[in-house]
Design brief:
65% helix, 71 residues, transport, 7% strand, Arc Repressor Mutant, subunit A, single chain, two-stranded antiparallel ribbon, mainly alpha
Length: 71
């Protein structure tokens, strides 16, 4: 889904940016241009960012637990 209409940025692009190391709205603004024009996407973009950051942390914790259990 398109999150930022002004800059044609999708939720997928935001998730990919998180996977590449971005972790804040300031970084999304700087690198993708999210919420730099009208700003109406800010809330949705922040939700996508935070949800994916949380999912990434949960996945990392699961992988670490499996590594500990197998060793």
């Amino acid at each position: 889904m398109i999150v930022c209409v002004c800059n044609n940025i999708s939720d997928r692009e935001i998730r990919q940016a998180v996977d590449l190391g971005l972790s804040s709205m300031a970084e999304l603004r700087r690198d993708l241009g999210v919420a730099t024009c009208c700003g109406k996407c800010h809330t949705c973009a922040r939700e996508v960012l935070n949800d994916h950051l949380s999912a990434t942390v949960a996945l990392q914790e699961t992988v670490l637990m499996r590594a500990v259990l197998t060793n």
